[in-house]
Design brief:
heterodimer, A: mainly alpha, Helix Hairpins, B: mainly alpha, Four Helix Bundle (Hemerythrin (Met), subunit A), 7 helices, globular
């Protein structure tokens, strides 16, 4: 399969993730859309590094997975703290830095 | 053929992640999407990354997300009002973003392969061994930084989830 097909699928997945970040109000769903964007980027890395006969892209995917795991722990900790404070996880309620 | 099956599954489940009302349904569709992406990695001859995708993403991160959804009892939090003005802007930027990525993919299609790690060469050594060799020789410093990052994430999650700040 041509590399452009993989890049287009990765682009579609990345755009869907970005759309989910923009239109959803639920903090957990926003977080899951963010994970979707990470995965689309990973797919692009693996496709390009397979096409150019390199290994660096595959190594980078492992580091992205490390960052995603760390981010999952932090983001879900924030979600729990936010729910405890507000009783909801609607991100429109996170308005204490607004004046 | 297999590529089209996986891409249809991945795109459909990605759409259902952002469109379904119930966060638990979104989480399960996201697991399906991760499995489809693991299928892409198998097609691209990176079986180690496919196994890591299933173990780390579908096995660890999504279990954590589902645990938080069930812990906070969010499965019936449906009455969040919609903001149609925001949705309009979001859909326009979605279309623009996809168009830009598409243009970028078309522009970069003149590159020729330069590396020595062809599929046949990787198959003679095994992709797990080759990734391990790279990870512990050329990329040893990012590897150590990643371990410190994970330590900081553990401490940060503990501090955030504590009852009193």
């Amino acid at each position: 399969m041509d590399i452009n097909a993989y890049l287009i699928v990765a682009g579609i997945l990345f755009s869907i993730g970005g759309l989910g970040v923009l239109i959803r109000k639920n903090l957990i769903v926003v977080f899951m859309s963010l994970e979707l964007m990470f995965n689309a980027a990973n797919l692009g890395f693996v496709a390009v590094s397979g096409y150019l006969n390199l290994i660096s892209g595959d190594i980078f995917v492992i580091f992205v997975m490390v960052v995603a795991a760390a981010e999952a722990a932090i983001a879900l900790g924030i979600a729990i703290a936010f729910y405890r404070e507000k009783g909801t996880i609607n991100i429109d309620k996170a308005n204490e830095l607004k004046w | 053929m297999l590529f089209y099956v996986f891409s249809i599954i991945a795109i459909y489940s990605a759409l259902m992640v952002i469109l379904s009302r119930n966060p638990l349904t979104s989480a399960l569709y996201l697991v399906l999407c991760f499995f489809a992406i693991a299928g892409f990695y198998v097609i691209l001859d990176m079986e180690f990354l496919a196994a890591m995708q299933v173990l780390v993403y579908a096995g660890a991160i999504m279990v954590l997300v589902v645990l938080v959804i069930m812990l906070l009892n969010l499965a019936n939090a449906k009455n969040i009002p919609k903001d149609f003005h925001q949705m309009f802007i979001a859909v326009i930027s979605f279309i623009l973003l996809f168009f830009e990525i598409f243009l970028y993919a078309i522009k970069g299609s003149g590159k020729v392969p330069t590396g020595i790690y062809t599929t046949a060469f990787i198959k003679t050594i095994g992709n797990t061994q080759i990734i391990g060799e790279f990870l512990f020789t050329k990329y040893i410093f990012p590897f150590e930084v990643a371990s410190i990052l994970l330590l900081i994430a553990i401490i940060g999650a503990f501090i955030f989830a504590r009852r009193k700040f």
